[in-house]
Amino acid sequence: MELESLRERLGVSVSDELLNQALTHRSYSYEHHNSPNNERLEFLGDTVLGFVVTTHIYSRFPDLAEGELTKIKNAVVSAKALAPIGRELKLGEHLVLGKGEESSGGRDKDNLISDAVEAVLGAVYLDGGYAAAQALVERLFKGLEIAPQMQAAAKDPKTELQEWLQARKMALPQYAVIATTGAAHRQTFEVACEVRELRQSQRGLGPSRRAAEQAAAAALLEILKAQHP
13: left (phi > 0), else alpha (psi -120 to 50), else beta? Predict the structure, then answer.
């Protein structure tokens, strides 16, 4: 019944199995012998969301350059934008958490809620295909005012590094998770950020994959700016 109420808020049909997985955090998976969690679905949903949003802003802002479109996209798909959508769906109430994450207020953490939004999108994509996922994205973001003014809010190290490379006609950086340490509810991620054309890479640490990517991008950007003023 609980999942049925969530399906009603989503306005889409998706199987219990996929929806349960989309709502299961790795902290619960760790405590229950590595049962399925939502990280893979989050990865898939992030890609689907990015494509839908990119297609939308490409059509809506025909006069904006690539870098400006990137800023808007990054603002739209950020945790800051996704968390309120997840709260509107009451995803926090449905999250399946480990004891440690539960006790530390995980149900109201922006990163967990935004990750769950992406995981749900991934589940909808697998269950109903791209059209179903696209329709859900458009419905969930209907109340969000997407405008060029969003660019300023999206200025983070990953965005700045991407713009720095694009201005020099270079390929985008590559990110890879090198290690994950610590208990499931207090994990630390180590991510490498590499610019192959310049043969440069740096690593960053953070409590989430995204935070570690930002740290790695910031470290690499500092070096590139010093070497190529």
Answer: beta
Which tokens belong to 96? 């399946």
Please list, in sequence order, all residues whose beta carbon lies within 8 angstroms of the beta carbon of residue 168, skipping any fewer than 6 positions away: 228
In this structure, the number of other CB atoms found within 10 A of the CB of residue 218 comes to 17
CA separation for the pair 67, 75 (Å, rounded): 13
Q: What is the mean pLDDT of the chain?
A: 88
Residue 109's region, left for phi above 0, alpha for psi from -120 to 50, else beta, is beta
Q: How many residues appear in the chain?
A: 229
Catalytic positions, please? Answer: 46, 118
Q: For 87-112, write each residue's pLDDT tens digit.
A: 999 999 999 998 888 888 889 888 89
CA distance 193 to 175: 5
Does pLDDT of 147 surpass 80? no
Which strands, in side-by-side order, build the sheet including 188-195? 174-181, 188-195, 200-206
Q: Considering the entire predicted model, what is its pTM?
A: 0.69
Q: Do strands 188-195 and 200-206 pair parallel, antiparallel, or not at all (unpaired)?
A: antiparallel
Contact 191, 175 (CB under 8 A): yes
Banded model confidence at residue 34, pLDDT cuts 50, 70, 90: confident
**Residues 3/20, Cβ–Cβ less than 8 Å:** yes
Predicted local confidence at residue 41, as pLDDT: 95
